[in-house]
Amino acid sequence: MQQYKNKKTMMTYIKMMVFSAIIIAMGFATGCQTQPVQETPDLSDTGSAQLMDVDFYAMFDYTAQETLHYEGAGEYYRTDTVERIDDIKSPETYRLYLVESNQEDMSDGESGDLSSLYQLKVSADSVSYYYKEGIETVLLKKPLAVGNTWDTERLDSQYGFMDITATIMAIEENGDIEVRYEAKTEDRSVNLFSKVQTFRFGATDGVVEVILGDNDTVVTQRLVKTASAPDSNYISHYVNPSETLKAFYRGDEMAFYVEDGTKKAWLWQSEHDDSSLYSAYEEYIAMLDSNDIRSVSRAKVMLNLFAEHAENDFELVERFTDFYEWMMGNFGVDLIIGESDDPITSIFEYYHYDDETGDLVLTAPSDQNSAEAAAVSRLLSSNGLGIYIAEGYPYFETMATYLDRNMPMTSDEIKTFIAFKKQQYSIFPVYSEGYLIQQPEVIADAMYLFETAAASYPNEPAFDDAAYYADYFFETLAVPLSFEMDGTKYYAGGYIQPDFYNTYHQYIEKYPKSKYTAIFKKIVVYLDSANGKYTEALNQYLNDLGYAADAEMIHEATQQQADFKAIERKATAAKPVRTNRVEVSDGISLIEAIAPDTEVVLKAGLYQIPYDNFENPYVSCEDGTLIIKDLSGLTIIAEGGIQADLVTDAYMEVIKLQSVSDIYFDNLRVGHIYAYCVGDVIAVKDGHDLHFDNMILYGCGYRGINLENTEDVHVTNSLISDCQASAIKLDHASNITIANTGLLRNGEQVLQFAATQDVHFENVTIRDNSYMMYEGQNGLFKIDDTSNIIFDNVAIFKMVDQPMIEGIGQIVDSDGNIIAEK
Fold it and tell me: Domain 7-233 class?
C-alpha cells in the first residue's frame, strides 16, 4: 500500500471520526494488504479451522485501568485506557468495558485533543461496540470461519448509523482473526475511511490492529504494548471512568451518540433543501439538555455536518450562536463547585489569575495538580466556556476564540458575523455596577467594528445587535456620567476625564468615515470652549441627537453655576502678596507647589486629589484627602476669572487645614465626586486668618465648612450647596463672617454652632435645605447658649416643617433685635 498523500485532508476525516463512541482515531501509516477472501466454508463442519472453541472472555480479558498503547506513523499515537463498568450495568450474560481512547497528533504542526469514549461488550458468543440495549456493532460472532458474514450497523462519527456487512477474511495459525467491515452504500460522497474498515484480533490481546480505508488509501495503527496502569504522564479525561460517569455524565453517554447518529444518518441518506435543514437543526438544538456541558459540543458537531449540506449555511451558524450564548447565560456551576459553601475556592482549582493581563484564565490540563481537575479543564475549554467572578461568585461566559475555531467559515457574511461576535465576547461586560472594565480607546475600536459589521449587512437581522452595540458604546463614550475605573470617575465634578477626551481625538483621526466622527468633532468643540467641562450646551446637543445625556450630576453642576452667578458680589479684602508664585495645571503639581509664603495659580480645569499617599513637609494626602498643615502665607487661586475644580473620590474630607494661618482661597469649586461620604468639603482645626472668596463648596460633603478652634475666618461671594448634613458647623470658633453667600440645598440643619462668638451673616440666602441628615435633628439651626450670632439681611426660604432653633440660644440682627430664640 502507498502512504496517504494528503495529510491535512486525512486529519479532517480522523478528527470527525474520533468524536464517535465507536471510532478509534488513527495516524498516518503505510498499511499491509489484507488477505484475499477465501471460499465460504461449510459451517456444518465444526473442524479445528473454524475455531469454534475460541474464548472471547480470554481474548478480551482486561482489568480496570489497563492501558493499551497503539502506534502509527507520523508520530501519531493512541492510548486506550480500559475500565470495567460491570458494576454500573450489572450484566448477567456479558462483560462491559468503558474504553477511553486518547490521541494526540504532532505531525506537520497539527495537534489536538482527539479523545473519545466507547463501550466494548464481550459475551461468550460475540464481541461488539455497545450503544444501548438492542443497538450495537457486532465485531466478532460465532461460528468463526473464513468467509463467514453477518449484517450489523455502525455508528459513524460523520454519517450516523450505517448498514454494514462484516466478513471474516482470515484466521491465522496463531489464532489471530481478521474481519473486514464494509458499508452498504453506493454514495460516493461517503469517505473511504468510513466506508471500509478492517480489524485484526489477537487470540489473547483483543484488537491488535485497525486499518481504515482500502487499496492505496489506508491509515493503520497497531497495538505495541499493554500496561497495568496508565503512564505517569498520561492524564485521563475521565480519571476513573466509572466514577466519572456518575459525576459528569448524568444519564447514558452512549444514548447521546445514538440520538446524534440517527440525525446524522437522516442527514446524509436523504435530500434536503435549506429550509428543511434549518428547521431540523432548530428542532435538534431545542431538544438538547440546557444544563449539560456536552450540549454545546454536540450542537457544534451537528452544525458543521448540517452546513456541508446547506447551500446557504449562514442561518445555521446564527442559530448555533444563539444557542451557545443562551447556554452560557443559563449554565449552572454545579459541574465545578457542586455543593461547596465556598465557590471561589472551588473555582480556583481550575482557574488562575494571569498577573500580566489581570484576567481569570483556565489552568491547562497539563498544569493541573490532579487528574480530576485536568478532566474538568479539558471539558470546559473544549466546549468554549469561559468564566468570570462578579460579587464573589463565578459565572460562565462565552469565549471569544471559540466561534473562530469551530464555525464553518464558508462565506464573507459568516466571517463578518463571527468577527462581530468575537469582539462582543471580548469586550463585554463593558461595565459592572457602574465601574468601567474597558478602557475608552478599547470601547472606541470595538464600536467602529460593530458599526462596520452592521453597515455591511443592513438588512440582515443577525446584525441588528451590532448596530445596537455600536450606538450603546457611543453613548458610553459620549455620556460617561455613571462610569468609573480604578476608583476614578470619568465624569468628575462636571468634567470629562482626559482619557475620554483623548479618545475622541483618536477616533476622529483613525475613523474619519464613521457616522460618529462628526458628533465627536462637535463634542470636542463644546469641551474646548468650556475648558473640558461637560456643559449644559453639550448636554442639550446630545439630547437633541436622542442620547439620554441628562444626569443628576449634570443638573447639580449647572444649577450650582447658575446659583453662583446670581450672587450679588461685593469687594473684599485685597489679595495678599506672596514672595513665591507657582503656576500649575494638575493635581500633583498643585500638591508639590504648596509651601509657606507662596501663591499657587491654577489654570482653569480639573484638579483631582490623588488617592495614593503623598507627603511634603506641609502637605499629605491620605485616602484622597488633601491635608495642609503647619504653614502660614498660602494663596491658591484660579486665574482668569474662570473657576478651577478641585475634587476627590475620598470618603472623608476634601481639604483639611491644620495649624495654619494667613490662608487665601479664591475662585475654586471644591467637592466630592461621589454622592455619599462622611467627610466635610473644607475642615479647619486650629486655624487663624482664613479667607475663602468666590468659592463653590458642594456635596456630597457632609458639611460645606467645619471650623474647630479657629478664628478670623471670612467666607465671601460664595456658594455652599448640596451638602448632606449642614452647610456650616462652627465649634469654638470666633470672629467668623459669612457675607454675600448662598446656602442652598443642604441638610435640614443648615447651621450648627457650639461655643462660637462673633458670627456675622450678611446678605446671605438660605434656601431649599431639606436633605435628610444621617442623625436625628429638630431645628433649622442648632445653637448652644454660649454662641453669639448676628443675621444681617439674611433671607430664609422654603424651610421644612420644623422649629427654627434646636438647643438653647438666640439669633439677633445688627441692631440687637431677636430674630429667633429658644
Answer: mainly beta
